[in-house]
Amino acid sequence: MLGAIPSTLFEKGRKTLVVLEAKGVRKYFGGVVALSDGNLRCCQGRITGLLGANGSGKSTMSKIIAGVYRPDGGEIWYKGRQVHYRNPKEARKDGIALVFQNLSLVPDLTVWQNVVLGMEKSRGIFLDDREAKEISRRILKRLLPGLDVSRKVYELSPGEKQIVEIAKAIAENPKLLILDEPTAALEQAQVRNLFAYMRELAQSGVAIVFTSHRLWEVMEICDDVTIFRNGATVAYIDFAREAKDPEKIVNYITGEAKENLPREKERLRERLSSETLLRVRIQSRTKSLQDGLSFELGRGEILGIGGLAGQGQSELLYALAGSHPKIRCEVEMSGRKILVRCPQDAIQNGILLVPGDRQQEGLFLEHSVYSNMIFPKLGLPRHPTLIPERKYREECMDVVQLLSIKLPGLDAPVNTLSGGNQQKVVVGKWLSFNVQVFLLADPAKGVDIGAKRDLYEYIKRLAREQGIGVLLYASDHEELAHYADRVIIMYEGRIVATLLGEDITEEAITAASVRVR
User: Alpha-carbon distance 248 to 402, whole Å?
Assistant: First the structure.
């Protein structure tokens, strides 16, 4: 717990101004506690690391400071006065800039138009495009030399888009710059350029908050760190006074080791079939997945995929589902080689994808539950011209009962269901198929605890009783620790570690993810 923070600190004989102080900040989303006791201190000319596992409250705190969310309690002090921002515009006007984890760029505008969007200057009755382009070139020359500021944003790679998002924030000349996971999509050279620019900004007096799951980045760039766990601040470490101890930081992030599943997991491993259901080798023409990556999946096994967000996990699942044009998979199922060139190939061979973004990729929100459940069948070869309505409705009702989906009726629009029940529909639409392998891309994201438990317990039963193989990516390490029989850790498109049996804990997964360099 952070104690009272003076308005000035003394560091090595010089006075350092506290630019921002958040005390006891609370935030609730419905019945979910996102922040229960958030505390954060940011000083002029210093880079503060904001650390914590997924869901610890880091992004919520950043968005409260930047005016995206309004707190439900606590105080925010900025430049010596208490502030209550009603929206991001007020915070930006006050000198606070946030680089969002989810990009806020306009794809059809050029790079330079995005950089100055909302800050355009005019020359007479016309916008001063010349100055806008010059501002963009000056910043991007440091962050990404050679990038043409006249290119449209939709033409850029994920890393280039992230750089443009950072340049957009820097162009505001902020006094407090908050970088929320800015390096997740960047290559090493781009990270180096960003760090060099961050140091210059700090030397000029800007206070910077830097959030990253990559511990080596924090060790290299930060002057101090604040650590969140379960919605509360649990530690503040000033590297000018304490040594940079990665083990100590990991312990603060993960908390005390939990005595819950290791022995049970070891017994489960002993009961699993030794039969290999799936062998996979990747042929990749992208940087997101390493060419030649390979692994095996056992019959009845739940194989977890861990690692920091954006390390190739989603690309791997989508490639196996036939949905990635630049990645091909050499797949052998139960000793039989199969070719997966498109989603139909995967579906016909029983390889079925449950996407993480149900609203964008898993459902037609305006359509009925019934329409969503039968849709995958309609494009299959030899599907009857006339839909067997009675048969399909009976199958859908069986799924509703099996998964305990709460709904007023099959004809109810799927967007009237809760998030958990929507996700059950995404899973349920595959259950009348001959499922061999389930590809789960963060299937419980945004789902309440009860629905999450129900969903995973059903998937576990499918694996154990029917011998289905499950490939599970979850951004929440707790889900992997509870339900995976084996976990592979991915980093920059390759497998860098494997955890088995008693080694599968939240702490071990987090530690293996952040220690990679």
Answer: 45
